Amino acid sequence: MRVSIHGRRREMGLGAFPEVSLKEAREVANEARALVRQGLDPIKERERRKREAASNLHLLKDIALDAFESRKAELKGDGKAGRWFTPLELHVLPKLGKVPIGEIDQRDIRDTLSPIWHTKADTARKAMNRLGICLKHAAALGLEVDIQATDKARALLGKQRHTPKNIPALPWQEVPEFYQSLSGGSVTELALRLLILTAVRSYPLRHFHEDQIDGDVWTIPAEAMKGRVGATSAFRVPLSSEAQAVIDEARKFERDGFLFPGFRKGVISDMTMSSFMKRRGFEARPHGFRSSFRDWCAEATEVPREIAETALGHVSGGSVERAYRRTDYLEQRSRLMQAWSLGCAGMVEKSWEADAL
User: Fold this and answer.
1) Within 10 A of 298 (CB to CB), how many other CB atoms are there?
2) What is the 3-state secondary structure (H, E, C) of 106-155?
3) What is the number of other CB atoms lying within 10 angstroms of the CB of residue 214?
4) C-beta neighbour count of 132 within 10 angstroms
5) CATH number of the structural domain 172-344
6) Which end of the chain offers a freer environment for a tag, N or C, measured as fewer CB atoms within 10 Å?
7) Which of left, alpha, beta for 206 (phi over 0: left; psi -120 to 50: alpha)?
8) Cα-Cα-Cα-Cα dihedral sign, residues 156, 160, 161, 162
9) pTM of model > 0.90
10) Are 292 and 299 in contact (CB under 8 A)?
């Protein structure tokens, strides 16, 4: 069939005979002429309809996996821990995984997440955020989706009633007694001691490797750090004399270079340390020692805020301020961690008013 549209002559195939009958070809031709009268190119309109039909074949589960693959490089350990994908896998995909993503609207999302919206608020929030990323990923692929569906679903679900709870932490005044009770010399006790002394997160501590030590400095690789801009730089941790003594003691357990190996393979789990504290009757958890350290900095020292925050591996200040501030305060943090360690080990008064600060 030949048509003229916008001053251009177009040739449009109507289908192969005998698969397409003469009657069907005439119907397609009549429809194409009607489109021309409306100022539309029948060939482009046919292609557009094909794209729309194809978009309906893109199921959410496939888009979710594709979105996950494209973001692995941004995730710690390439997302192998499963924390990014798990909220979708457990709470969204069982209900919406086989639904074409172009058909998903705010009501579908509301009905899917309403059972956990208040009871598992943090998980529901993560699932909603991941679903929003999937919708934007689909839009970037050229699929017809409602990228505002998650915002509309939040409006339908309302404000979450659940109040987030902070991880229980020991008051800093009680840390020395607990630290000094870790005298058994086991892998778990040594890991807890070093965790307290360095105020780092559990993940880099559990994956502490011999080649990360250079004298009295422990350098944590960028990929093991959480919350640092772009995770492009490693983080240096000054090791106090007490921390170095703990490391020397832990070397007898070293396996494949890791100082805190698991029972059979790999390294000890975060649950290992948590369970140890639970068995000892403590509500506090290992991660809480970072809060203990930060409270000590605020209440018992006059250390500047930016040094205390840097000691925790936090990024402080605006982007302009960070661009001009190139130091990581290693020398000042070294004195700070030495004072903290002395207090934990009971080598100074409980007030920890060390002259070094």
Assistant:
1) 13
2) HHHHHHHHCCCCCCCHHHHHHHHHHHHHHHHHHHHCCCCCCCCHHHHHHH
3) 10
4) 18
5) 1.10.443.10
6) N
7) alpha
8) positive
9) no
10) no
Q: Under 8 Å CB-to-CB from 9, ≥6 apart: which residues?
A: 2, 3
Q: How remote is the C-alpha of 51 from its chain's centroid?
A: 34
Q: The tokens of 167 are what?
A: 């991880």
Q: Which residues pair with 219 in a beta bridge?
A: 236
Q: If you ran DSSP here, which 8-state letter would residue 10 be given?
A: E
Domain boundaries, the chain: 2-55, 60-157, 172-344
Within 10 A of 93 (CB to CB), how many other CB atoms are there? 21
Which two tokens mark 349? Answer: 């008064």
- CATH fold group of domain 60-157: DNA polymerase; domain 1 (1.10.150)
- List the pLDDT tens digit at each of the 357 positions of the chain: 888 888 888 888 888 888 889 998 899 889 888 888 888 888 888 888 777 666 556 899 999 999 998 888 777 666 665 688 999 999 999 999 999 898 899 999 999 999 999 988 889 999 999 999 999 999 999 888 999 999 999 999 999 886 666 678 899 999 999 999 999 999 999 999 999 999 999 999 999 999 999 999 999 998 777 644 344 578 999 999 999 999 999 999 999 999 999 988 899 988 999 999 999 999 888 999 999 999 999 999 999 999 999 999 887 655 545 554 567 889 999 999 999 999 999 876 544 454 444
Rounded to whole angstroms, the Cα distance separating 215 from 193 reads: 19
Q: Which amino acid is at 343?
A: G
Both tokens assigned to 166: 């902070």
Q: How far apart are CA 326 and CA 305, in angstroms?
A: 16
Instruction: Dihedral sign for Cα 85, 86, 88, 89, please.
Output: positive
Closest of 126, 56, 59, 63 to residue 91, by C-alpha: 126
240 class by beta-carbon count within 10 Å (0-12 exposed, 13-18 middle, 19+ buried): buried
